[in-house]
DNA sequence: AGACTTTTAAATGTCAGACAAATAGAAAGT
DNA sequence: ACTTTCTATTTGTCTGACATTTAAAAGTCT
């Protein structure tokens, strides 16, 4: 672990990278205690605040956790699925909101990935996954639901579908794709008619999953994608036309 | 943005969360300059080092960038795909290496997601995607290639396949799944015979993509998954038997 | 001896002030 | 008009200090 004081990246960034490499390479194992801040400062020949900034960088990525007190210090953190989910969702959401990703592109990615889960979910889903899906469908059919609540329920429905595959790695990868869509979906108003269509498709999808028919589930997801993208393009077209009308 | 000095989470963590929320919610837009560290310290009623630790947390997630000098400061960063990829890969790799995810689970997730890309890639792949795939196949066929180099080439091959879909969101989501597998793959030794099989399957896959036959590409990916998992379980079984033999 | 209380040491969390380095803009000179 | 110098601002880093938390060691009482 060598540090170059002349490197424009900054000392704390270099130290953070060095420790990160040690963790990723396996030189530092889970729950291992790092040297104290003072010792690290000595080793790297920098001051304690600089070391602290480096440690905060790692803490922000959940790579380490810190504990105060006599036996405290910085410990290599076991990256829990929950932490990884949260990071994944934040990153995905920002990526979509900041890069002018078109609704179509995001939608296509999401449904393509979900279709990948469908056969596995049809095969392995437990009763509670089905129960969650059915419950969310009921919620979505309720009149007077706000668009936001409708979208949130939609996300919950699809997460149940994904989790049904019983593969935590898949669930992790999909979490970002599904949740990051929510802000984009929230920009769309769902008419009573379109909600009916979606609820019908969700029901057909849940039926396919219940029947353990993966192929049918994939087809229903394709239908849902077509419906969602068609509805979204209608909404955007209407909005554009409205804007032009107001302008004239 | 209110800060509670009694909160055990720590002042810097709270400040980081407050700014993060402002960015995610859109209150702070891309390229907007945050107040200087001194001003932030005043606003939050904390010292400058505390503010700095908070800013480093955000910088570690590529949410902000800092610039020195007269007109310098902290700016809201446009999260580039490249940065997001890197984070995604790091997180995925750690998630797999730290949580005793079985080879089968990771492999299943990876190939399921890749199959989702296959139809899109078959439809849209540009000539250079195909060229990359062919080039990597040639590399994989070279004798004397180390296992690591073989795995790296495998990753490059599959990335070209994924990128062929022309959907950056999909590429982003898949980057983690494909790259994170590499450390797991590196634990496997590939015999000349298994390499031959893989190269043949890769060739068939590239042929399917070239012929714009998405269904065939999905089937070839299925074959590749079967081969990979079968070979891996053989290697693990042999290793286990070897260990027991040595023990007796 | 055993259980409880107090002390102590070690570590992180925070603060204050200072200086160095980089950078852009203003001011001065040619 | 152009170039150079100066200056103000801001981040990067250092030094030193104190507060807080925590667990273990030391001490005390029954």
Automatic annotation (TrEMBL), chains A, B:
- At the top level of its lineage, which domain of life is listed? Bacteria
UniProt keyword Iron-sulfur, yes or no: no
For the keyword Transcription, the answer is yes
Question: Which SUPFAM superfamilies does this UniProt record tie to the protein?
Answer: GntR ligand-binding domain-like, Winged helix' DNA-binding domain
Supply the Gene3D superfamilies for this chain: GntR ligand-binding domain-like, Winged helix-like DNA-binding domain superfamily/Winged helix DNA-binding domain
SMART domains assigned to the protein according to its UniProt record, in alphabetical order: FCD (SM00895), HTH_GNTR (SM00345)
Please list the GO terms describing molecular function.
Answer: DNA binding; DNA-binding transcription factor activity
- Please report the stretch or stretches of sequence annotated as the HTH gntR-type domain: 9-79
The record, for Pfam families, names:
FCD, GntR
Write the record's keywords in alphabetical order, separated by commas.
DNA-binding, Transcription, Transcription regulation
Q: What is this protein called?
A: Transcriptional regulator, GntR family
| Organism this protein belongs to | Cribrihabitans marinus
